[in-house]
Amino acid sequence: KLKLEANSMKFNVGDVVKLKSGSAAMTVVNSTDEETSLVWSKDLEIRSTTVATGTLVLAPQSRAQAYVVER
Prior knowledge:
Elements: E1 16-19, E2 26-31, E3 35-42, E4 45-52, E5 56-58
Antiparallel strand pairs: 1-2, 1-5, 2-3, 3-4
């Protein structure tokens, strides 16, 4: 039998991601299998949010311009 599992993956800090439905490039600051915290820049302001990890995909690196997280 084929077993289907939730299409969720944990991202690494610093990964550049986008919403599967389309969005600006965002930088991962924390990620679990359930949720991922992100930052990005818009209109010279740093913004942040936390979304369900399964709603994200890695952004193409050649086109992504996201806020860099320094540790």
